[in-house]
Amino acid sequence: MSGNVETRVFETVDIDGESLRVSVSPGPGTPLVICNDFAANLDVLDDFVVALARPTLCFDLPGIGGSADAAAMRRMPALSRLLASLLEALSMPRRVDVMGIGWGGLLAQQFARDHRDRVRRLVLTATSSGQLMFPGRLASLWRLARSGGLVRAAPSAQDARILFGGRRNDECNAIANGLSRAIRPTRRGHAGQLYALTGYSSLPWLHRLNVPTLVMAGDDDNIVPMVNARVLALLLPLARLAIIRGGGHWFVLERTDEVVRVLESFLDARVAITDADQDNTL
């Protein structure tokens, strides 16, 4: 399934003192806004975005990928406001679907809290509630915290499997391919994402986030262990949990076809969440 191959448009948008690189795939239906993982530029998600049969918006935060260096250091609520300004600048529809991957899942949660009227459905992928989380493999977390970001983080399938998790080298090869498009963040951009994360937690207000939410997790994630997804699904009032068996942290690249099927089913469903979903979050 595809619809974003030839119609995807790349541009630079100047807002709130920042210059952000974005990619937009136009089309009918509710756009899916994708908040990417820590230090990950939008090019890493190329194969995933192309597989989606819906309009999408991807963006590089300040100092990440093709965006200009960060003009200001922002906490997560300020980044949420920046995202809202970006949607306005691009004349996006009033209601959008929002997907957050890893670090981007925190921004997605914050945006859904701050701009509830703008979010139709929420997808949280390989993420947690913030710093108050069950930590992943220390060696993997330390490697990703380096200022080089994802550049040369996983040059081979075996490297990707060791760093991020995932049970099959042939599937992890897709992660290595995606990360081969990673761009080194600026020092200020890298520091800015760490700054936004410091002290951040959505735990105090998750129970009030009344947005139909799909929580997706890989059960072999070395960065954000699956128990964090169970916590999110338990606390969110309208959550459904989907587990990618054998998936590591980058299962959106590793198991793209499976993830797209689950994602599209959730976003296209007439009833997003049922009582049965709530009964099976654990």
UniProtKB/TrEMBL annotation:
Annotated Pfam families: Abhydrolase_1
Zinc found in the keyword field: no
Residue span(s) of domain AB hydrolase-1: 31-255
Gene3D superfamilies tied to this protein: alpha/beta hydrolase (3.40.50.1820)
GO terms for MF: hydrolase activity
Lineage top rank: taxon: Bacteria
UniProt keyword Hydrolase present: yes
Keyword entries, A-Z: Hydrolase
Protein name listed in UniProt: Alpha/beta fold hydrolase
Organism of origin: Salinisphaera aquimarina
